[in-house]
Amino acid sequence: MSKLASTAELENLRRALLDKRDPGEPCITICSGTGCHAYGCEKVADAFRKEIIKKKLSRKVKLRTTGCHGFCERGPLVVIYPKKIFYQRVKIEDVSEIISETIIKENLVERLLYVDPNTKEKIIYEDDVPFYKKQQRLIFGNNGVIDPTCIEDYLMAGGYRALAKILNGISPETVIDTVKNANLRGRGGGGFPAGVKWESCRKAKGDVRYVICNADEGDPGAYMDRSLLEGNPHSVLEGMIIGAYAIGSNQGYVYVRNEYPLAVHNLTIAIKQAERYGLLGTNILGSDFAFKVKIGRGGGAFVCGESSALMASLEGSVGEPRAKHIHTVESGLWDKPTNLNNVETWANVPLIINKGAGWYNQIGTEGSKGTKIFSLVGKVNNTGLVEVPMGITLREVIYDIGGGIPGGRKFKAVQTGGPSGGCIPEQYLDLPVDFDRLSEVGSMMGSGGMIVMDERNCMVDVAKYFLNFLKDESCGKCTSCREGTERMHEILVDITEGRGKDLDIELLEELGEVVAETSLCALGGTAPNPVLSTIRYFREEYETHIKDKRCPAGVCKELTRYVVDRENCVGCGRCKVVCPSQAITGKKKKPHKINQKKCVKCGACFENCKFNAVKIA
Amino acid sequence: MNSKEVNLILNKYKRDQSSIIAILQDIQEQERYLPREVLEYVAQRLDIPLSKIYYLSTFYKAFSLEPRGKHIINVCLGTACHVRGAARLVDRLESDLGISAGGTTADLTFSLETVNCLGACALGPVMVIDGEYFGQMTPEQVDDLLKKYRKKPNKMKVSTKSAKGRKALKVTAVKGTKKVKKRKKKIRV
């Protein structure tokens, strides 16, 4: 591996790599995203490795561990190229059969195929799985194809072509214009036009400029940045290099969450590989443009996702936001002009440069162009990461891609935008998802978390959950945020524990307004959203908690009492077995009884009863 | 941790004051917490007021100033895990271990911690023990899992170099309840 001295050399290398690869050669790809890791994909990959050697197939079949494929619900996922045969929930025991049947004899292992729950049809190929069908995987698609620790894979998938294109004589101003014309909006939550930001940073006074990739993905319930950085780190790096060229920066930083060790690991390797090929460092691809990237690790503070706090943290201080009368594009990291964008925003850049602003503008809605990756999680059948064009409806995402709500339960709400967002009720399921429409209904795009809730989720509890999160994560600089979130949380605790009073709802609304208006940064500015949006759409539920001292969903422990319905109980004894506090008594085949004094309200009996005999009183 | 080991970390970051967070992370990775003596030494070598280091290590959640257990249990409290009942998982762990979240058992075997989101939302509720992920956990599974770890010596690096320290750890690994003698780590400056 030697440094590439020109863009032509890069193309030659790419061609040489592609010539060496036989497109018809079988290749087993195994998803090794965090989800599949937890399911034990590493052991499956090892088993494949051993089996391939045992059957002496090393020359005939390739094995590749890739980034996250997105369909985390069904992991560990195995896709066999070139036909893209899709096997799900693959265990070590299945490995030898896959090799002997699918690889050698070209037969299918039917029990590992995905079965469409609606049509009961077995699906053979990855592209035919309903979960993937409605997606438009422009940014995320390569995750399943390339090994993130192998730059050659990225090159073969067309990587660094956009960088070569701009270094072949496109001026920085033209690059900025392209990004502006593409109407790329920041994917981190704010939705600010990236091109405009770049231009202001380029025009800001100063000799040194910095470029930052914000990978401090703090929103609970969102993990697309993690999967992108883990699964395709070069796409993010390429975007940053192009951005640095356009802005006129020679130093970049990637600020990664402390909780994402695999992302740090893969990114470190990617940076080293790019440096060795001369795609990072001085004289990039023989030009006189130089750019280096360093990794900064976060310390587990949510507020560090805010730009000025993140920069303070990179400088080695506590991450407290500052007032932004002067924008960070003019005075950011070490008081130098700094341009910060989120992981997904950077990953969009090579695509825009390669395909052009006109092409990019065809995807999406009037105000929001391109695709967006969402982490579709919570009470939904197909949890995972989905990339969809802006403007798709919530119903399509939750029902067509997500496969609806498990257990035939009723949809209640979907929470978007993380702690700054809100809960959207059933009546808005046909809402097209884009930056502006989500704000209109009191929520926001945020970084792309989409948490589905069903009838067994209590909305007051959800509001309490977010306020608890925000009061802990408030950095404490602004009194209204520090004290306001604390007081709002106290009120919510009171409501959920049976001490709710009349006018509590009105007090929450008033406090929320003050906190939002008098806090410096977006954390405080949007902190009341989870409360205000749940009050807006689920006021009755608050009132039931306050007036009737009852939690209809059975989540708030103090307001819940489990009882056995004598008519439904068959006396199977299952609840007795799972009860951790021995609160359930009863003879076999006779209705059981719950001793309320002993009951710790863990809900184990309720969850485990198959005869619907345990009820919430 | 002796001064040589600390210097190794400091040199890795070229004794750069702005790398202080990364330095503290490396120390914590080895020691599982930030011992006072080490912090005093770092403050002196980097010429940073100890008060600032204290400010940093209490601001960022990743740091602990108290010794932590041999096995670190991290329960994800992200929204996705929350709506699937992560709070019940914490309740069960708290009652089984006899400590509240954020605490360490008296025998220094387990530390129970919570995290805002691990980014493994499809597996919710998720918990991580010593870096190993356990997805779709139910409170009923907690008992068996803890039993396994009570017997298991931890995978993480144990910094004690002395044979004495190692012996003490072995004893807890088997018996699970005996108190570990507090290992004294002194830094020669």
Considering the chains and any ligands shown, give keywords for the structure.
heterodimer; A: 617 residues; alpha/beta; Glutaredoxin; Rossmann fold; 5 domains; 39% helix; B: 189 residues; 46% helix; elongated
Strand percentage of chain A lies at 5-15%
Count every beta strand of chain A, where a strand is a DSSP E run of 2 or more residues: 19
Content-based structural category of chain A: alpha/beta
Which assembly state applies to the chains in this document? heterodimer
Give the neighbour order of strands across the main sheet of chain B. 2-1-3-4
CATH superfamily of the largest domain in chain B: Glutaredoxin
Report low-confidence residues of chain B grouped into runs of 5 or more: 156-186
The dominant shape of chain B is: elongated
What does it look like?
The complex is a heterodimer of chains A (617) and B (189). By secondary structure, chain A is α/β, with parallel strands linked by helices. Chain A folds into 5 domains: 24-81 and 85-124, Glutaredoxin (3-Layer(aba) Sandwich), CATH 3.40.30; 151-360, NADH-ubiquinone oxidoreductase 51kDa subunit (Rossmann fold, 3-Layer(aba) Sandwich), CATH 3.40.50; 371-454, Ubiquitin-like (UB roll); 459-548, Up-down Bundle (de novo design (two linked rop proteins)); 561-616, Alpha-Beta Plaits, CATH 3.30.70. Chain A is 39% helix and 14% strand. Chain A contains 24 helices and 19 strands. A 5-stranded mixed beta sheet of chain A has the order 12-11-15-13-14, sandwiched between helices. In chain A, helix 7 packs across helix 14, helix 10 packs across helix 11 (233-247) and helix 20 packs antiparallel against helix 22 (529-548). The termini of chain A are far apart. Chain B is of the alpha+beta class. Chain B has 2 domains: 3-59, no CATH class; 67-189, Glutaredoxin (3-Layer(aba) Sandwich). Helices cover 46% and strands 10% of the residues of chain B. Chain B has 8 helices and 4 strands, in the order H-H-H-H-E-H-H-E-E-E-H-H. Chain B has helices at 3-12, 20-31, 36-46, 50-59, 79-83, 86-97, 139-151, 163-175; strands at residues 71-76, 110-115, 127-129, 132-134. Chain B has a 4-stranded mixed beta sheet, with helices on one face. In chain B, a hairpin with a 2-residue loop joins strand 3 and strand 4 (132-134). The longest helix of chain B has 13 residues, at 139-151. Chain B is elongated and about 50 Å long. Chain B starts with a helix and ends in a 14-residue tail after the last helix. At the A-B interface, helix 2, strand 11, strand 15 and helix 18 of A face helix 2, helix 4, helix 5 and helix 6 of B.
